[in-house]
Specification:
This protein is α/β, with parallel strands linked by helices. It is built from ten helices and seven strands. Helix 1 crosses helix 4.
């Protein structure tokens, strides 16, 4: 079986899981390639028997660029897919919405994998609660997922439809209500305005290349940032090696305090269930 793993990764967590799943697929005797979502030509997907899509969770679901990529798969028919994601505390409805978009194109999801990933958001304290993740246990689980996913795909194609995962949208939680409210239009309104300090900017193109939607152009004068298409991932500000992208995070710091407490409560529950292993005293994060 020939497999393609497509991923969107910023801090490297999702890419690490993609590489680990690939390791498992190769171990099972199948062929596997990896591609960044920005560089994929959907017209080449017919060359693969199984396709994986991986993403970090943004605001309790898949980011807009991943959603738009999936919508663009309407030229591909009857391909099995598997999904994977990394998240800082709550996976939310990520797989539900990804499956919903794939289903609209007649595409079938035959398996999923998720795990925690460490990501320091600018307006949260350091270190964050998921420092150390994905850990060795999660990486082992990702490899095992890769080892079995091709076999599962074959079994489903041979009629074992009970193996097909079912997805249910969660709606009666604080984070689900918040996710519904945080549309892209709302995010753009509440997102702090970025500016590029031309005295610091060396035009190294790090931010421009890291932007998932090409919403930055530092090669023009004056440089442009947060252009049309910006998905409010805020990664460009973090990625700039010169600190040339400047903004004021004070309002976001105030607004996010209740969210942080909610994340920690969710992690406490996950820890009790044996699903989360803390490597920092996250209960004291404030």
């Amino acid at each position: 079986m020939k497999v393609l793993i497509i991923h969107f990764s910023q801090t490297g967590n999702t890419e690490k899981i993609a590489e680990t799943i690939k390791k498992g697929i190769l171990k099972s005797g199948n062929i596997c390639e990896i591609a960044q979502i920005k560089k994929v030509d959907v017209n080449t997907l017919e060359n693969y028997d199984l396709i994986g899509i991986g993403t970090p969770t943004f605001f309790y679901r898949e980011p807009i660029n991943v959603k738009n990529f999936i919508r663009g798969l309407n030229v591909i028919k009857e391909k099995p897919y598997f999904l994977f994601c990394t998240h800082g505390s709550l996976i939310g409805n990520t797989f539900y919405f990804m499956n919903e978009e794939l289903s609209k194109n007649g595409l079938k999801v035959i398996g999923t994998f998720d795990c925690y990933g460490y990501s320091s958001i600018q307006f949260y304290p350091e270190p964050m609660h998921t420092v150390g993740h994905p850990d060795e246990i999660e990486l082992k689980e990702a490899e095992e997922f890769g080892e079995h996913i091709c076999e599962i795909s074959v079994r489903i194609q041979n009629g074992e439809t009970s193996l097909i995962p079912k997805f249910e949208r969660i709606s009666k939680t604080w984070w689900a209500r918040q996710s519904k409210q945080l549309t892209l239009e709302v995010l753009r309104k509440i997102s702090p305005k970025f500016r590029i300090n031309v005295d610091k900017c060396t035009k190294c193109l790090t931010c421009q290349e890291a932007c998932p939607t090409n919403a930055i152009n530092v090669e023009v004068d004056p440089p442009e940032i947060q252009r049309e298409g910006c998905i409010c991932c805020w990664y460009c500000e973090k990625a700039c090696p010169e600190g040339a992208i400047e903004t004021d995070w004070s309002m976001m710091e105030k607004a996010s305090k209740s969210n942080l407490l909610g994340y920690i409560d969710a992690l406490k529950v996950a820890e009790e269930q044996g699903k989360f292993r803390p490597y920092v005293d996250y209960e004291n994060i404030k």
